[in-house]
Write a structure and sequence with these properties.
253 residues; three-stranded antiparallel β-sheet
Length: 253
């Protein structure tokens, strides 16, 4: 893997990186353990290596069950999930279902929170890549940039492996968690893809993506600063009723 990997030795180095990435407009993702890869949940554990038709079938069943069960939506934009498969997957991802999506944020401070939010006995990691480079290289995948969504969905949901596209997408305004987390999602049209490898292949420019390790000894301090100085913690990142209820329940031993 050609991603540059560095260790942030001090609290000051962590926040210098976050400020730089925010200024340079990098997409970023935090993971509370060092997995050394970016694998979506539909390709992990027992799902790893399952054939594409089975994953397509399970993905379709998951979307259909969601649509058949949902009667009330917290935000107007969520109603689009009833007709748009990618939006349905975005909502399912935010609520913990297995999907081919990975969460990212335009805010490196939010990504840093997810790198330090838990697993205090292990180092965390934060990944980032240049938004402007992605916007330039991403369009090169499409024969018609106006109809990129049609091309991607055609390849993503067909039974056989089609063209191997990589996409970053956002959900329409109106989804509370995404708005609070300044979020977006990466996904590929082919299963069992490490998104780190696909980003590397697409950007083809080592300086446009990087991975940093955050030592476990810094996690608690960084969490405190993110909450006190930037207002970033569970309460601000999960402002809907489901998130608030989970936060409230955490007061009990």
């Amino acid at each position: 893997m050609a991603w540059k990997t560095h260790t942030l030795a001090t609290e000051g180095e962590v926040f210098e990186l976050l400020i730089r990435w925010r200024g340079d407009k990098w997409y970023s993702r935090g993971q509370s353990k060092c997995y050394n890869c970016l694998i979506p949940s539909i390709d992990r554990d027992a799902m790893n290596g399952k054939f594409r038709p089975e994953k397509i079938n399970l993905e379709r069943r998951s979307i259909d069950i969601f649509r058949a069960s949902a009667r009330f939506f917290s935000h107007p934009g969520e109603i689009l999930a009833l007709t748009d498969d990618l939006i349905a997957l975005a909502i399912l991802r935010h609520h913990g279902a297995r999907t081919r999506l990975l969460d990212w944020s335009r805010s490196p401070f939010v990504a840093a929170y997810f790198a330090v939010c838990c697993d205090d006995d292990e180092d965390g990691e934060i990944w980032g890549f240049d938004e402007s480079e992605y916007m330039k290289k991403g369009v090169s995948q499409w024969s018609n940039t106006v109809e990129w969504k049609y091309e991607f969905e055609k390849a993503a949901f067909c039974p056989g492996n089609g063209l191997d596209f990589f996409v970053c997408m956002t959900y329409p305004t109106g989804f509370g968690r995404q708005n609070a987390q300044d979020g977006l999602y990466s996904l590929t049209s082919v299963f069992d893809r490490d998104h780190a490898e696909r980003i590397e292949q697409l950007l083809n420019k080592p300086e446009s993506h990087a991975r940093y390790l955050i030592p476990k000894t810094l996690k608690a301090t960084i969490r405190d600063r993110l909450r006190l100085e930037h207002g970033i913690w569970d309460v601000s990142l999960y402002p809907d009723s489901a998130g608030a209820a989970k936060t409230a329940g955490a007061v009990f031993p």
